[in-house]
Amino acid sequence: MRFFGIGFLVLLFLEIMSIVWVADWLGGGATLALMVLSFIAGVMMLRHTGLSGVLLAGAAMKNGGEISLYQMLWPIRYAVAALLLMSPGFVSLVIALVLLLPIKGKPIAQMNTMGGTFGNADNPFRRAPGGSGDIIEGEYTVTTPSEKQKQDYIEHKPD
Q1: Between residues 80 and 148, which one has the greater pLDDT?
Q2: What domain count does the chain have?
Q3: Could you give the CA distance from residue 112 to residue 119 in angstroms, rounded to a whole number?
Q4: What is the pTM assigned to this prediction?
Q5: Is residue 154 part of a domain?
Q6: pLDDT tens-digit map of 67-119
Q7: E strand intervals along 15-155
Q8: Domain annotation covers residue 153
Q9: What is the DSSP letter of 32?
Q10: Residue 13 lies in a domain
């Protein structure tokens, strides 16, 4: 925990220095405009992901096949990048852009707490192998009321 505090202070110092360097290089107005645009982009990203990021991670865990670590961590990386874009400074902007890079990994097998893989018999919503996914099996019967039942309903209709 001691290193976390030191790292935070170093990051804070680098953020201030990056603002000063960019303001010296581009000018104060352009630096302020870049910081406001970065903040707006971060807010829009957080509004976009919201609860859907959590649901996306849950869906990726339950899809029954193999999943890459990238797919599991993408919603978290996206939210952290949005928060970093909202912070003033250009070091956090660079870190946010690195987090948004499409770095993919090899698929890993999913393991649940019981030691089995997700998507086997313990998941009732898994698609059957080889199925198209568009067919819902079931039986139904169409019943039409007889004329006498219709007449009785009309005569004894509750008010």
Answers
A1: 80
A2: 1
A3: 10
A4: 0.57
A5: no
A6: 666 666 777 788 888 889 998 889 999 999 998 887 766 655 544 444 444 44
A7: 67-68, 107-108
A8: no
A9: H
A10: yes
Residue 33 CA to chain centroid, in angstroms?
28
Q: How many helices (H) and strands (E) does the chain have?
A: 5, 2
Q: Facing residues of 107 across strands?
A: 68
The type of residue at 147 is: E
Across 4-155, where does the E strand assignment appear? 67-68, 107-108
Q: Which pLDDT tens digit goes with each residue over 124-144? A: 555 555 555 667 777 777 777
Answer yes or no: is pLDDT of 9 > 60. Answer: yes
Sign of CA pseudo-dihedral 22, 26, 32, 38? negative
User: Residue 67 is encoded by which pair of tokens?
Assistant: 């999943």
Residue 149 lies in a domain: no
What residues contact 24, with CB distance under 8 A and at least 6 apart?
none
